[in-house]
Amino acid sequence: MNLLEMNHVSKKFDGLEVLKDISIQVKKGEVISIIGPSGSGKSTILRCATMLETIDSGELIYLNRKAAWNENGKAVYAPHKELKEIHRYYGLVFQNFNLFPHYSVLKNIIEAPVSVLKEPKEQATAEARELLKKLGLEDKEDYYPHQLSGGQQQRVSIARALALKPQILFFDEPTSALDPELTTEVLKVIKELAKEHMTMIIVTHEMQFAKEVSERIIFMENGYIQAEGTPEDIFNSDNIRVKEFIGKLENR
User: Fold this and answer.
1) Which tens digit of pLDDT belongs to each residue from 192-251?
2) Mean pLDDT, range 149-177, rounded to an integer
3) Average per-residue pLDDT in the chain?
4) In a domain, 241, yes or no
5) Nearest to 28 by CA among 229, 171, 217, 199
6) pLDDT at residue 177, as a whole number
7) Which of 101, 193, 242, 246 is spaced 20 to 30 Å from 65 by Cα?
8) Are 216 and 25 in contact (CB under 8 A)?
9) What domain range includes position 158?
C-alpha cells in the first residue's frame, strides 16, 4: 500500500504554474530524494504534501484517506477533523530549524506529543530523552536553541518531528543552512533513519548523499518531474539536463 499518493497535482502562485501535473507514489520504508535547480518546484511539492500550501487541482491521499480531490476541475479538501487526523501521518523538518526559541530543547520536543497526541507528560519526556540519546544530544535537554550549533538545532528539529511518531518524514533541504562539518552530522542522522526503514522524502542538493540514501530520485525542473528512477538510473541518465545538473553539483 502507498503511504502517500499525489496524483496530477498542479499549483499556481499569482497565475504562474509552479507544479504541473505532478504524480508521486510513496511506499512504506521508501526513501525518495527530490533534486533540481532553484525554482523548479521541489519545496512546493513538500509544502503541498504537508498542506502548508493548498493544491489547485489533483489528489492528495495518505494511507487510502483522501485529503484533497478534484471536483469540477478544482481541488477540494476533506473536512477539518479528517485533515487533523491525516496530519498525524507525517512530520516535516525545515531548512531553518523552526524551533521555539523560548523553549528548552526538551520542551521543544514534548510540546506537540503532550498538546496534540495528549500523551502523559512523563511518557512524552521519557520518549524525548530516548530520541535525544539516539541523536547524540542527551546532555542538551536543558539548553535553549540559541545555545546550540546549527547542526545540533537541526537534530533537535528531527527529534521533534520523530516525537509525533509519523509514518512519513519530509525534509526540506535540511542542510542548506549549515556549513560542511555540521552538514555531515545531520546527514548521518538521516542515513541512520533510512537504515531503520523510516519512510522519507528529502529535498536536497547533496548529490552524493542522495545517491547513497535513496531508493528513488526525482529530478524536477520548471514545475515538471523531468526524470525519475533509481540513483543508478539518474546518475547514468542520458537526459542532458539531468547530466548537466548533476555534473555541476558534483564538480563544485
Assistant:
1) 999 999 999 999 999 999 999 999 999 999 999 999 999 999 999 999 999 999 887 665
2) 94
3) 94
4) no
5) 199
6) 82
7) 193
8) no
9) 99-163
Non-local (6+) Cβ contacts of 164 within 8 A are 88, 91, 112, 113, 116, 117
Dig out the grid coordinates for 57 from the structure.
Answer: 487541482
* Sequence-distant (≥ 6) Cβ neighbours of residue 45 within 8 angstroms: 6, 9, 19, 22, 24, 34, 203, 220
Amino acid identity for residue 115 in this structure = S
- Helices 105-115 and 121-134 cross at an angle (nearest 10°) of 130
How far apart, in whole angstroms, are the C-alpha atoms of residue 192 and residue 164? 18
Domain count across the chain: 1
Place of cell 493544491: 55
Position 110 in a domain: yes
Q: Are strands 2-13 and 57-62 parallel, antiparallel or unpaired?
A: antiparallel
Residue 71 inside a domain? The answer is: no
Instruction: Return left, alpha or beta for 17; rule: phi > 0 is left, psi -120 to 50 is alpha, else beta.
Output: beta
Q: Does residue 112 sit within a domain?
A: yes
Residue 172 in contact with residue 46, Cβ under 8 Å?
yes
Does pLDDT of 252 surpass 60? no
DSSP code, position 80: H
Task: Write the single-letter amino acid at 167.
Answer: Q
> How many other CB atoms are there within 10 angstroms of residue 106's CB atom?
19
Residue given cell 511518557 in the structure block: 123
The predicted pLDDT at position 250 comes to 61
**Do residues 103 and 143 lie in contact, with contact meaning Cβ atoms separated by under 8 Å?**
no
